[in-house]
Write a structure and sequence with these properties.
- This protein is mostly helical.
- It has 2 domains: about 170 residues, no CATH class; about 230 residues, no CATH class.
- Helices cover about 50% and strands about 5% of the residues.
- Strands 3-4-13 form a 3-stranded antiparallel beta sheet. Strands 1-2 form a two-stranded antiparallel sheet. Strands 5-6 form a two-stranded antiparallel sheet.
- Helix 10 packs antiparallel against helix 11.
- The N terminus is likely disordered.
């Protein structure tokens, strides 16, 4: 079977197929901030064909065939990341190993389809299929695989697979080879955007309805379009802002949108680090609570994911809630740690003391994740806030610097030990921006518990924000709750979160050409009061989402 599959795919003459068109005209920049831009007309960027991520491949197979096998996540190589995101078009590229795994996955999926399953996607009896049936299969099923109607050349190339194989191996095998070939084409594995006409009044290329359907589905669902999107594309009803907005709002009500929110947060916050962390009691301290260190990482992660889902899509969640809500989800293990009644089963939503808990920065999972195994980690916590919440990257330490954390000392607090550790010449400039934030979170240990003293010494949780681009963020504060309330009402924080979502949606780091589109998104997000649903809708209505810059051959038309 494997030899036949390879022979069948090679017979397609894939070189004749549309290859993914990648443009690198716009060089990325780390920040498009600064003075407010003057934006007129339609502002566009170059579009790059985007390779499906492992999550997107598995979701597409699920929605295409009804098979929830998670093949890609088991078989395919890990994606390269850029700015923490795995769907960056330039970083996530196909590799020789990836090509082998696409072949293997296509064969596994073919074997998973029984004759009855295959018959569900073939418009005739698979055992007696003729060339006319195969042609109809190519047209109908191929449209769903390619996410648009096939060209004549594409359809005839795939039909040749049946013509060359069915006489020798039978009609069912010929149909299976078409199926396997489809799943190895660039049109399936990538999301290329075909040549379209330049809109004369704007000088931009307005994406067609099929292209918009795919952009919407892979942004909001990480999967292929559904029947409603296909129907809208068939009738060319994804052209106006009103049409796109209506579809986006419909799609946000689907459970698949919740999965996308979790995928974004997983990457933005680096939640995969929770899977293998080990957190223990500090040597010399005994809280009297027996902890299950093996269970905690899983409990922390689910607790945080439930909180993020509630804030992001349930109700009217917004940035203010993200940084001020005292809600924590606990199971029996976490309830012991945080001094609340354990639920009878599963997780329960509880509100902790609002003087001790305020949103994301005080979520137990975040505090545990940004810690060392036996003590808190003010540097890690400060870097996280600076880079992921304020979008102000910190230079890495010089290679010669020893980054080993100081051992716990019953005569010193963590603040005192790390103050000595970070006063090294050449490091102090960065640590001025990091430590003032990280030390402000010292009321929380490596298990995410609130504490007022360490080794019997009162905790000093005073802090200071320096060099934020929004002046009102700068200044002294005392403790995580004060810091969180300052972040909750910050335009810089809203802009940073909008930028992180924009990077996730577009699959690239923003560049100068993105400036006006990013400004559209940021303005809409702030006008909505930082509402996350409105942020996602605003991205789908931005120029960068609806249009692209023309390529050379289009300008010449």
């Amino acid at each position: 079977m494997r030899g036949l599959t390879k022979l069948g795919v090679l017979s397609l003459g894939l070189a004749a197929f549309l290859q993914p068109a990648c443009s690198h005209e716009d060089e990325p920049t780390s920040d498009s901030g600064g003075d407010r831009l003057v934006c007129e007309g339609v502002n566009t960027v170059s579009a790059e064909a985007r390779l499906l991520t492992r999550v997107q491949y598995d979701n597409t197979i699920r929605d295409l065939l009804g098979l929830d096998l998670r093949l890609a996540q088991d078989l395919f190589p890990l994606e390269n990341t850029a700015n923490g995101f795995s769907n960056n078009a330039r970083a996530h590229q196909v590799s020789p190993l990836g090509i082998e795994k696409y072949l293997e996955a296509a064969e596994v999926l073919s074997e998973e389809l029984s004759a009855n399953d295959l018959g569900a996607i073939v418009p005739c009896d698979v055992t007696g299929a003729d060339e006319a049936c195969a042609a109809e299969f190519v047209t109908q099923f191929g449209k769903r695989v390619f996410r648009r109607p096939l060209t004549e050349d594409e359809a005839s190339g795939l039909l040749r697979v049946f013509q060359n194989s069915a006489p020798k191996y039978g009609s069912e095998e010929g149909l299976r080879l078409i199926f396997q070939a489809l799943l190895q084409t660039p049109q399936f594995l990538y999301r290329p955007e075909s040549i379209s006409g330049v809109t004369q009044d704007t000088g931009a290329v307005q994406l067609g309805s099929y292209e918009l359907a795919a952009r919407l589905s892979y942004f909001l669902w990480n999967s292929m379009p559904d029947d409603v999107l296909f129907d809208a594309a068939d009738h060319d009803e994804l052209r106006t802002a009103e049409q796109i907005e209506a579809q986006a709002r419909r799609m946000l009500e689907d459970p698949r949108a919740h999965d996308v929110v979790l995928d974004f947060n997983r990457q933005w916050l680096g939640l995969d680090r929770l899977d293998n962390i080990v957190r223990e009691e500090t040597p010399g301290l005994n809280s009297g609570i027996s902890i299950n260190s093996m269970q905690l990482p899983q409990s922390w992660r689910e607790s945080l994911e439930r909180f993020l889902t509630e804030i992001s899509l349930d109700g009217e969640g917004n940035v203010h809630d993200l940084f001020t809500s005292p809600v924590v989800y606990v199971d029996a293990e976490l309830a012991k740690l945080y001094g609340v009644e354990a639920p009878a089963e599963g997780f329960a939503r509880v509100e902790l003391d609002a003087s001790e808990r305020a949103g994301l920065l005080t979520q137990p999972a975040m505090l545990a994740m940004f810690s060392h195994p036996d003590q808190s980690a003010p540097i890690k916590r400060g870097v996280f806030v600076r880079e992921q919440v304020l979008c102000q990257p910190i230079d890495p330490p010089p290679p010669s610097v020893d980054q080993t954390p100081p051992d716990p000392d019953p005569n010193l607090t963590t603040r005192e030990r790390f103050a000595e550790h970070t006063s090294i010449p050449g490091c102090s400039d960065c640590h001025k921006k990091i430590d003032g934030i990280g030390f402000g979170l010292e009321n929380y240990d490596q298990l995410g518990r609130f504490r007022e003293d360490e080794f019997g010494i009162p905790v000093d949780a005073s802090g200071q924000v320096l060099e934020a681009t929004e002046e009102r963020l700068n200044g002294k504060f005392n403790g995580a709750v004060q810091l969180s309330k300052r972040l909750a009402d910050s335009a810089q924080v809203e802009d940073c979160i909008a930028t992180q979502w924009y990077r996730y949606a577009t699959g690239r780091v923003e560049n100068d050409a993105d400036g006006c589109s990013l400004q559209q998104v940021r303005d809409a997000f702030q006008a909505s009061g930082g509402n996350f649903r409105e942020l996602l809708v605003a991205i789908t209505l931005s120029d960068a989402f609806r249009y692209r810059r023309p390529r050379g051959e289009e300008v010449a038309q």
